[in-house]
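new request in #modeling-help
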Amino acid sequence: MPREAEISLNERAFIQQALQEDLRLDGRAFDAFRPLQLTFGDEYGVADVQLGKTRVIARVSVEVTTPPPERKFDGVFQIITEFSPMASPAFEIGRPTDAEVILSRILEKAIRRSNALDTESLCIIAGLKCFALRADVHIVDHDGGLIDASCIAVMAALQHFRRPDVIVEGERATVLSVREREPIPLSILHQPLCVTFSYFEDEDVFLVDANAAEEQVRQGEVIVTMNRHGEVCQIAKYGGATMDPLAILNCTNIALQKVRELSKFIQARLDEDAAKRNAGGLLAELSAENAR
Amino acid sequence: MAPEALLSPLHRADGSATYTHNRYSILGAVNGPIEVQRRDEMPEEATIEVNVRPAVGVGSPKERHLETLLHSTLRSIILVRSIPRTLVQITLQIRSLPEEDAMLGVNTSLLILPHLLHTALLALLFSSVPLRAIVTSVLVAIPFTKGAGPLLAPSAKELMRAKPFKSIHVFAFSGDRKMLLNESDGVFGFEEWDEACEMAEEVCCKEEGGVGLGEGMEVDGQSATENLEQWLREVVKSKVEREQRWRVAT
């Protein structure tokens, strides 16, 4: 496999000098995201996120399995990320790069361990049967900001997904198909989203949503995951640069503002999609869900 | 219904295409010719690597089987000897399958094979990897029901209605009417196979006389498929036209 082409010294100096003059290569503000596009597939639970030139497709699917004996009352939820040579020839199948390991670890912490999804609601019969939910993240085009884009894709796909309904009679559970009963949405407790800050030590600058060139020049990164209520789910710092604690506090403030914008955007797209599916306004009658 | 193709949707890959037909949707990307790893390097020809990635989960033996089939077919159309000691990397990501796919009770790897081949070809065409010929491919399904004719490039719904099947066949032809690939599954005699093969050839390859092909194959009132080679030419033509418009304008 060829290695990723390293950025040349001239390009590096150019980006750094531009940053000293308060400019980014693509003319964005330091705390601006690239244009974000979110589209949903025909099926439930497929989200296609385009963040500038980065493109990530997340797909949520479900099957019925036996829960692990130590967690009888929980369902199973897995996030699977695998880079393919499609995004960059430097990615090899079956041999994860550092970026891939970091991505899956961050998604794990941000979404799974922060309990974004109520796994207890995936249980069908305690100790016998539960739903196993898996989110496959396909990185299709790579131009930096993979963590932010993947997190948006997974959260949007989870909110879009509908799982089949089940009827439980004693020890027997019947899974009802889409034709028999309208599938039901997952119970999502909160919506964590990641914002990555790239730190340039010499210029003392934090950039939001760096592209691939800027990612190669940066000295450090801080990944802040929070939900729109301002609860921080995790903060991770990578790279050798030392950072001022106050600057990190400032990062969380910017992150909160960004996360609010992003969640609003995702919700707007979800509503649009729901309206498109709900032609004629008959969906409410089909639903077997009880009002809480 | 002709397949839909969107060319070069990706920025990073050398050539890419999204392909949608009968609710099978596939994204293909080609990188090449690029540096090859020492252990895969061949002194007189290019190495071809095919990766098929399923929509859900990680690759299984089914994907590996498809990869070998695609590998041998594509190797025969890529001019491997003109780019020795390089790597042509083909990645095919399945984006969605029709819901009925798993319920048909037939070998599902055959159903998706023509679509994968077309996606790979389109991506190869736009990555400017030297090719010897183009390839078009089609699925023929022969149902058990007496009197029902063979189905040509059926959609999953049509297959659902016509099942069970005696046999299904996948044929791939190059532009000069040479058969490149044949995969068959089920019980069949030579006559049936020959009939299926002729039908497939008619749809895949362009007739010189310009006879409207696919007219004889009425599937539920609508003519089944238009000529696949013609479709391919149209796709390429529209793409080239769009790229050359700066020249045309002057």
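bot summary: Chain B has one domain: 4-249.
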